[in-house]
Design brief:
Elements: E1 4-14, H1 17-28, E2 31-35, E3 39-43, E4 51-55, E5 60-68, H2 71-83, E6 89-90, H3 93-99, E7 103-108, E8 114-119, E9 146-150, H4 154-163, E10 168-175, E11 186-192, E12 201-204, E13 214-218, H5 222-234, E14 239-246, E15 252-257, E16 263-268, E17 281-282, E18 287-290
Parallel strand pairs: 1-4, 5-8, 9-12, 10-17, 13-16
Antiparallel strand pairs: 1-5, 2-3, 3-4, 6-7, 7-8, 9-13, 10-11, 11-12, 14-15, 14-18, 15-16
Length: 298
């Protein structure tokens, strides 16, 4: 199995880089700078970027960037993928320069989600300075946050993520979108890697045209969540879910639309888990309170 340490970055494709810059700076409170190939770096800590926005023909989530410890771990990952008969594409020099890593390769899971694995990020370690005063985001050693990916081929995708990529099961949820008991349940599995974040990845048993259900960014206190809600209103960003607190990771958060068509969860207070003491479980409700997702359909 791969030894994934954290979600290092995400890659987003955009038809309008300027729209992403405005959203990242003025709504999320992240810092932006130009990247090779006309792309955009979105910065939330001392690393040069955590979100890479690349120009393209569509607005969508493109890839999840998983961080490995070092070169031996990277070589082991490539060997593991080869033994599992996974088609692997090695990064071009331009992609390496853009990702700012020593080496990177990518592959797709059985649901078609693109995963990039890399080691040795490069950074100037300049201080994060938010254009709207966000003091910091909760990142290392737990990574950029989490991502929730579509998995219409659910069983095959979960088996691949567990047996090849090495993710562990944190908990399970099942959802119906209507009150019709004949509607098939959609499964969500929340998965962790080699850090304390409750889940760095989740898979949802449904397709998504945007290539992602949502990503999460975490801030150090509730005041920053409230200020972000104010900015959402000021800039006319559509809410996808009201403020609430999840049962599983205890994150207090709200959800909003991104220019990429997927959602972003902005929250505080996520659990840091000691995996030696954890037992996987199934939650039968998504939140302790709040999180009215119907607002996203109004």
């Amino acid at each position: 199995m791969l030894d994934i340490r954290a979600l290092g970055y995400i890659v987003v494709e955009s038809t309008d880089i300027g729209q992403w810059r405005g959203y990242a700076e003025q709504v999320l409170g992240m810092a932006c700078s130009g990247a090779p190939g006309g792309a955009l770096y979105v910065k939330m800590d001392e690393r040069d970027y955590r979100y890479l926005v690349v120009p393209g023909a569509r607005d969508r989530y493109l890839a999840s960037g998983w961080e490995l410890a070092d070169e031996p771990a990277y070589r082991h990952a490539l060997e593991t993928l080869r033994e599992a008969n996974v088609e692997v594409v090695h990064a071009s020099p331009a992609e390496l320069a853009q990702r700012r890593v020593q080496a990177m390769a990518w592959f797709a899971d059985p649901s078609g989600n693109r995963h990039e694995v890399s080691w040795g990020m490069r950074s100037d370690f300049l201080r994060f300075v938010s254009p709207v005063g966000v003091p910091r985001f909760i990142t290392d050693p737990m990574g950029a946050g989490h991502t929730v990916l579509p998995a219409p081929a659910f069983d095959q995708t979960y088996a691949f993520l567990r047996d090849v990529m090495g993710f562990g099961l944190s908990d399970i949820f099942r959802v119906r979108f209507t009150s019709d008991p004949n509607e098939p349940e959609k499964r969500i599995h929340f998965l962790h890697c080699a850090n304390a974040r409750h889940h760095s990845l989740a898979i949802f048993e449904m397709p998504s045209d945007a290539g992602c259900i949502h990503v999460m960014a975490e801030v150090p206190d509730m005041a920053e969540v409230g200020r972000a809600l104010d900015r959402v209103q000021q800039h006319g960003v559509k809410l996808s879910a009201t403020l609430g607190q999840h049962c599983n990771d205890r994150m207090t958060s709200f959800y909003m639309k991104t220019p990429g068509g997927f959602d972003l969860e902005f929250g505080h207070g996520g659990l840091a888990v000691d995996w030696s003491q954890h037992a996987a479980y199934e939650a039968t409700r998504v939140s302790l309170w709040g999180h009215d997702f119907s607002i996203g359909y109004r």
